[in-house]
Amino acid sequence: MDVFEKVKEIIVSELSVDENQVTREARIVEDLGADSLSMVELMMGIESAFKEFDIEISEEEAQNLPTVGELVDFLKSKLD
């Protein structure tokens, strides 16, 4: 499974942004326009997509993942 591509797909769907905007360097709030509600929905979407791996992302953890790349790396660390 390509974690980045899956996360990118969820971000495009949840935040209604162009897929070209979703890069590893993109900041979820500043660059992709997520607010607190959309961040919660985004994290729920990611947890749902990765439910077979029983991944949960706390609010505190989400706040410490400002970029798409950091979010992807966090998920990969949970998958190992």
Describe this structure in words.
Helix 1 packs across helix 2 and helix 1 crosses helix 4. The protein is an all-alpha fold and 80 residues long. The longest helix has 14 residues. 55% of the residues lie in helices and 0% in strands. It has four helices and no strands.
In short:
By secondary structure, the chain is mostly helical.
Give the name of the CATH architecture. Answer: Orthogonal Bundle
Secondary-structure-based class equals mainly alpha
Helix fraction?
Answer: 55-70%
Radius of gyration: 11 Å
Q: In terms of per-residue confidence, which ranges show pLDDT below 50 for 5 or more consecutive residues?
A: none
According to CATH, what is the class?
Mainly Alpha
Mean pLDDT: 95
Percent of sequence in beta strands: under 5%
The sequence of SSEs as H and E is HHHH
Largest sheet: none
* CATH topology (fold) name: Non-ribosomal Peptide Synthetase Peptidyl Carrier Protein, Chain A
Total number of domains = 1
Extended strand count: 0
> Helix count, per DSSP?
4
Oligomer: single chain
Distance between the termini: 12 Å
Q: Per the principal axes of the C-alpha atoms, what is the gross shape?
A: globular
Key terms:
80 residues; mainly alpha; Non-ribosomal Peptide Synthetase Peptidyl Carrier Protein, Chain A; 4 helices; globular
